[in-house]
Specification:
Number of domains: 2
Order of helices and strands: HHEEHHEHHEEHH
CATH architecture of the largest domain: Orthogonal Bundle
Strand content: 5-15%
Radius of gyration: 26 Å
Largest sheet: 3 strands, antiparallel
Shape: elongated
Number of strands: 5
Distance between the termini: 56 Å
Helix content: 40-55%
CATH class of the largest domain: Mainly Alpha
CATH superfamily of the largest domain: Winged helix-like DNA-binding domain superfamily/Winged helix DNA-binding domain
Structural class: alpha+beta
CATH topology of the largest domain: Arc Repressor Mutant, subunit A
């Protein structure tokens, strides 16, 4: 259960200090036992070794668990991008990139796919798509509205100077 690839009978025999023939017999007996008991997993001989797999009949439950029950954490880049959007929304992707100093296209796709960010219209001058946070974002943070976001000004350098720099970058 703790290996990344199928384990050979020889390796199991060496680790357990049991003859290979006995290991082979026990593995086949275990595989048959798991199958006849209709467990949620199977022991299969694959690619020259043995490995546990979830039972095909349990695939929908396993899929739901993996996709819904185990939300992967956001990367530092995604968190920074999300913070920029939360505090500057509605904001274009170019503006977020200018603030962060890196291309945020892939990160934006991740945030949109996770339902944390959505399109909020088109910027009149440039025609760029504007983005904003979603209700799901508020729900995940446990806040009722954007007004409940913590004050960010004490943590930033002169924000007015930043705005003038950003305006020159996007003009």
């Amino acid at each position: 259960m703790v290996v990344d690839e199928p384990v050979t009978e020889l390796l199991l025999a060496q680790v357990l200090e049991v003859p290979t023939d006995e290991i082979r017999a026990r593995l086949h007996a275990l595989a048959e036992s798991y199958s006849s008991e209709e467990r949620g997993f199977e022991l299969r001989e694959v690619a020259g070794g043995w490995r546990f797999y979830s039972h095909p009949e349990a695939s929908s439950a396993v899929e739901r668990f993996v996709l819904e029950g185990q939300q992967a954490k956001l990367t530092q880049a995604a968190l920074e991008t999300l913070a920029v959007i939360a505090y500057r929304q509605p904001v274009s992707r170019a503006r977020v990139s200018a603030i962060r100093g890196v291309n945020v296209e892939a990160v934006m796709k991740t945030l949109v796919n996770r339902g944390l960010v959505e399109e909020a219209g088109i910027e009149g001058e440039s025609g760029a798509i504007l983005y904003q946070t979603t209700g799901y974002f508020l729900e995940r943070l446990g806040i009722a509205s954007l007004a409940d976001l913590p004050e960010i000004a004490p943590h930033l350098p002169n924000i007015d100077a930043l705005d003038s720099v950003l305006d020159t970058l996007t003009d």
